[in-house]
């Protein structure tokens, strides 16, 4: 009992000293900084006076400057800053500080006291007004700004998210194709294969009279304008000519496009698989021979390791069809594959009346020029990667560059050093990294990591690759997307050539 009494007394004394002022814990303090994400969330269609009371006790933002007024293409008086403090979500805001906005350059890190300002929209452009130039403090300069690649369709779908942020539109081209005398001044329609975005250049910009390029990356800031129906229309403004990185000055038209394939019919696959393609010009294959090559990279496929001869490796790794006779009209589908010419395996709809440029029993016959052993299946059906490539030649080697290529999945030994499956410049792949400009000629190298997915096995799923290709511009206006078409034994040809199939536009 005496022990308990003494112990209790000790605790009371300890509590007394713990409660003395010099031991008091001061509690949490509100950060002086609020994220741009949270500031923007305050705007609900009407002006908002920014105060600590509605900014959770904060008064400032800290961000990176992305605007550059030296080229004369930024809205006058606006300092454009961005950061991703909140949920790693990048957001930007324009601060109206007048002529002093031109004193700051991209890479300047600043803190800005925004309390006392007004969050508003001026002609659709979100900004904070009423902030004096003295409220901006530069704390660092020359800070690298990571490239933020954003497809145009995402900007068009959510202009509020991307407004006042620096983005890069990759592989952008103009629609219509510019003439040799066309210049940047005004509004131009920029297409990156995902949508049409307005590129705006002020007539007074220092580079307004610069010529348009065919294929370039465009680094710019997204601004919004208010339309009569109260919706926001985004536009991209580059800051100077250095924001336009030319990738190509010539039009490279893909003569043949991969538009679909049947890798796994209902029942046995042997001699029933096929590839659907489209001609983008009138082609006489006797005058201009082509080749179509399929790769299958199962773990047991030989020769093993990275493909020593690329698409021309042969064995169980690649299988080749030479296209040396027949014709295909511009915009028409044609087929390559097994001699049965059936839409979904045994006892299914005949496709014999379609335009088959090359067909034979690949289950009993080696590939053309000996590239590929006879095989029960051209494609892998799960796990490791399969692929299709089209060449505007029949002699296919490690150095041969395809004019179109598509891959399914990622597994297997696909690339090592200077050995691999070469890609084409198309809507999914790039021979040169479009952002870093480094060479990446092979699949799984650099940014060449996109791939189609496998459908459920043995169910007769046709892989329809629907997109829109403009042969005049030499570019995909809408990149191909994969759709699984669940065919029956009686499915008509329209199921694979009709709605949702690739088409030519111009």
What is the CA-atom radius of gyration, in angstroms? 30 Å
Poorly predicted runs are: 1-25
Ends apart, CA distance between termini: 97 Å
Mean pLDDT: 92
* Helix proportion: under 10%
Structural description of this entry:
There is one protein chain. With about 500 residues, the protein is mainly beta. It has 3 domains: about 35-140, OB fold (Dihydrolipoamide Acetyltransferase, E2P), CATH 2.40.50; about 150-250, Nucleic acid-binding proteins (OB fold (Dihydrolipoamide Acetyltransferase, E2P)); about 255-505, no CATH class. The chain is built from 5 helices and 29 strands. The protein has helices at about 1-20, 35-40, 150-155, 160, 495, and strands at about 50, 60-65, 80-85, 90-95, 110-115, 120, 125-130, 135-140, 165-175, 185-190, 195-200, 215-225, 230-235, 245-250, 255-260, 275-280, 285, 290-295, 320-325, 325-330, 335, 355-360, 385-390, 405-410, 415, 420, 460-470, 475-485, 505. The strands form 6 sheets. An 8-stranded mixed sheet has the order 1-6-7-4-3-2-5-8. Strands 15, 16, 21, 22, 27, 28 and 29 form a 7-stranded mixed sheet that branches. A hairpin with a 2-residue loop joins strand 25 (about 415) and strand 26 (about 420). The radius of gyration is 30 Å and the shape is elongated.
